[in-house]
């Protein structure tokens, strides 16, 4: 069972099932109020990073390279920590990331302990307690508000963001946040199928 779980984590091909699994945080995953999982990571400069290195009296930003969300010809799922660090360095260089970038181990222990989402963000206090989590780091407004609240010592206006697919999801406001995400993904998927159908018609006519 454990081998199957790890095999599923290091998937070779992205699937629709994975897409829908990423639409919400799973029950029982690390959440606001919980202690951030213990970790020992290697950074792209070769140093070791543990909890006490970042849980202090100053805001520290760390990007965790986890796995390839869409493994393919150029970047496959890493089989060794050396491969993973190489991919993490490529990511850091491509985007010009100036803060710390660390790589999770090959089995994704920290990523799986947090809930293996492709692009989530977590904010903790100096004691390592999770204050806020966001399903997508692209929800800049919610992240900024959470940071402002934390720095000011205020209670969080919100401890979680489930915002999905930006403006498309906002079209479905009468629905719950989770339902809006599913509706947005289905809308985008339908749009892609229609585009592919039109493209096929143009090619074969």
How many strand elements? 7
- The helix/strand series, from N terminus to C terminus, equals HHEEHEHEHEEHEHH
Number of domains: 2
Q: Unreliable stretches, pLDDT < 50, 5 or more residues?
A: 198-203
Largest sheet: 4 strands, mixed
Reported CATH architecture of the largest domain: 3-Layer(aba) Sandwich
Tell me the Rg in angstroms. 19 Å
Please give the order of strands in the largest beta sheet: 2-1-4-3
Please give the alpha-carbon distance between the first and last residues: 50 Å
> What is the 3D shape?
globular
Helix content: 40-55%
Output the structural class: alpha/beta
> In percent terms, what proportion of residues is strand?
5-15%
| CATH class descriptor of the largest domain | Alpha Beta
Task: Please give a structural write-up.
This protein is of the alpha/beta class and 205 residues long. The chain has 2 domains: 2-163, 3-Layer(aba) Sandwich (Glutaredoxin), CATH 3.40.30; 164-205, no CATH class. The chain is built from 8 helices and 7 strands. The chain has helices at 2-9, 16-21, 51-54, 81-95, 109-114, 140-152, 166-170, 177-204; strands at residues 40-43, 48-50, 62-65, 100-103, 121-124, 130-134, 160-161. The strands form 2 sheets. Strands 2-1-4-3 form a 4-stranded mixed β-sheet. A 3-stranded mixed β-sheet has the order 5-6-7, covered by helices on one side. The longest helix is centred in the C-terminal third of the chain and has 28 residues, at 177-204.
